[in-house]
Design goal:
Strand order of the largest sheet: 1-2-3-4-6-5
Mean pLDDT: 94
Low-confidence stretches: none
Order of helices and strands: HEEEEHEEHH
Distance between the termini: 41 Å
Structural class: alpha+beta
Strand content: 25-35%
Number of helices: 4
Radius of gyration: 16 Å
Number of strands: 6
Length: 157
């Protein structure tokens, strides 16, 4: 898998992106339901591994990082594809998915699309809880329960 292969698939999806061939990565930004200008990086790590990272366009304030870390631990529990990460030093928050494949094999367009959009979907689902902690002074447990309650309500509709 080469960065050019991912770029070709992204062109077919109509995405506007920048390619850094030396670093073997692609960057673009996208608006989500919960935040504008969410950054994204697809990077070839080695011939059998690629990472797909979605990055929140703000850093979590120092005084809220411990509470957000507890919330993210709850959010990460049971996830099947990817995980939230927060840098405790600067508060950078991202969702990272890793794709593993056979050397020189291409990822199907469907799989590549899922690996790319998983982080954006997880932001839409869980970042409202992060914002509830940062801006609404909710506890991690209350923020997490509000996400789960909204999820249960959506399933019933």
């Amino acid at each position: 898998m080469y960065i050019e292969d991912i770029a070709q698939a992204y062109e077919e999806l109509g995405l506007h992106f920048a390619v850094d061939e030396q670093e073997q990565r692609i960057r673009f930004k996208m608006n989500t339901r919960v935040s504008p200008d969410v950054a994204f990086i697809a990077r070839i790590v080695n011939p059998t591994t690629a990472t797909f990272t979605t990055i929140l366009p703000m850093n979590i304030p120092q005084e809220k990082r411990d509470a957000v870390a507890v919330f993210l631990n709850r959010a990460n529990w049971g996830l099947l594809l990817g995980n939230f990460e927060m840098n405790p030093m600067d508060g950078k928050l991202c969702y990272r998915v890793t794709g593993c494949f056979e050397e020189n094999d291409l990822l199907s367009d469907d799989l590549l699309r899922r690996l790319t959009y998983t982080g954006f979907n997880m932001f839409d689902k869980f970042v409202p809880g992060v914002f509830a902690i940062v801006y609404g002074n909710q506890t991690p447990a209350a923020a997490y329960e509000s996400i789960r309650a909204a999820e249960r309500t959506a399933r019933q509709e």
